[in-house]
Design brief:
single chain; mainly alpha; three-stranded parallel beta sheet; 14 helices; 58% helix; elongated
């Protein structure tokens, strides 16, 4: 054993008096949910890259456990120092494990991803991660082990320091975005159908199939009940199997425009056809009452179409959104009051309908539902 004043320990110093007891290895394995989350990321079109300051061999070993990269190669910081920006842009797309990296390397990797038109989300917890967290499109700091510098530099903070929470956030974000699109896809065509009814009446020179007061009623009851219900729609089964959307893609694209025009003409035309059919057989009040109920029925059935953007609405998740079921029952109740309550007759100039007249709204609603499902089948 060397003297106390010695500051080094060399092999020649250990001659006797030392007994080998063994070696201790400490391992910090990845969480099981992290391995599962990486797999879910891959299915969702999200590429996971590991950027660490650890040794290259350690980085490759962790990469193999997480199924990140090939598990056989890793790019180290020294190699990145010898690359110019163009070379790094190519390397960052071909490799997923980066070891022995410094804060400057992490920033360069973020810039290289951005140069390839990639959206980057960076996670980190230390002071040295702050520049990359600030530079990334979405900086995500650890809430428990993360430093205050990292939290201040990030846009988001993980309360549980769990990678799986990021995937849950992606699922929730995609669900919210899909539900927003569903609400738009419901509101615009149904309002378009109402406009088509009025425009058709003007162009054809016929009496209005629905009065302004009746249009206001339809807008009020459908907006309060049907449109709001779609915001509670649960996550679709394939939401994490679709690739990320183009950040420049509009909410209303070509397909949405087609659906809006398609449903507007189909529903508006059906309501006008019902009115013209009944106008010569019944009085004007009866014809308009059936036309309004046909318009509402068409919107009610179309709501079911909108529960799936391209999938059919019937499945094991059909009853999960209780808000839709409550909205449908509420709308039917309100529309029954509109049709059969005497005080409603005096306000909206309507009348009670019975017998064969009740088939017209059902035929219009069922017809719209079938037409849209056929269109979705063709789209799939």
């Amino acid at each position: 054993i060397p003297p106390v004043e010695s500051t080094t320990l060399e092999k020649k110093d250990i001659k006797e008096g030392a007994v080998f007891l063994g070696l201790i290895g400490i391992m910090d394995p990845p969480r099981k949910e992290a391995i599962r989350s990486v797999k879910e990321c891959r299915e969702a079109g999200i590429r996971v890259k590991m950027v660490t300051g650890d040794h290259t061999i350690t980085a490759m070993a962790i990469g193999r456990q997480l199924n990140i990269g090939t598990g056989k190669t890793a790019i180290d910081g020294r190699s990145m120092d010898s690359m110019d920006d163009a070379e790094l842009q190519k390397v960052v797309m071909e490799n997923d494990v980066f070891a022995r990296t410094s804060p400057a390397h992490k920033v360069r990797l973020i810039n290289a991803l951005r140069a390839n038109n990639m959206i980057s989300a960076m996670t980190g917890d230390g002071v040295n991660d702050a520049p990359a967290l600030k530079n990334a499109d979405v900086g995500i700091a650890m809430g428990n082990k993360g430093t205050e510098v990292a939290k201040d530099a990030a846009e988001m903070v993980l309360a549980d320091d769990n990678f799986a929470s990021i995937i849950n956030a992606v699922e929730e974000g995609r669900t919210v975005y899909d539900n927003l699109r569903k609400a738009i896809l419901f509101i615009l065509p149904t309002n378009g159908a109402e406009s088509m009814v009025i425009i058709a009446a003007v162009l054809l020179g016929i009496a209005m199939p629905v009065t302004p007061a009746q249009i206001l009623w339809v807008n009020m009851v459908t907006a309060v009940t049907l449109a709001l219900a779609l915001s509670f729609e649960p996550m679709e089964s394939d939401v994490m199997k679709n690739p990320p959307r183009d950040p420049d893609a509009p909410i209303i694209g070509g397909y949405f425009l087609f659906r809006i025009i398609y449903v507007s003409f189909a529903l508006g035309g059906a309501v006008v056809a019902v009115f013209l059919t009944l106008q010569n057989q019944y009085d004007m009040v009866t014809a308009r009452t059936v036309a309004v109920n046909s318009l509402v029925a068409g919107q009610l059935f179309y709501l079911l179409n909108c529960r799936g953007l391209k999938s059919h609405p019937f499945g094991r998740h059909f009853f999960r959104n209780k808000a839709v079921l409550i909205a449908c029952v509420s709308l039917i109740t309100l529309q029954a009051m509109f049709t059969y309550a005497p005080f409603m007759h005096s306000i909206f100039v309507t009348t009670s309908i019975t017998g064969n007249l009740l088939l017209y709204p059902l035929l219009v609603g069922g017809g719209i539902f079938a037409l849209v499902e056929l269109e979705k089948l063709a789209a799939r």
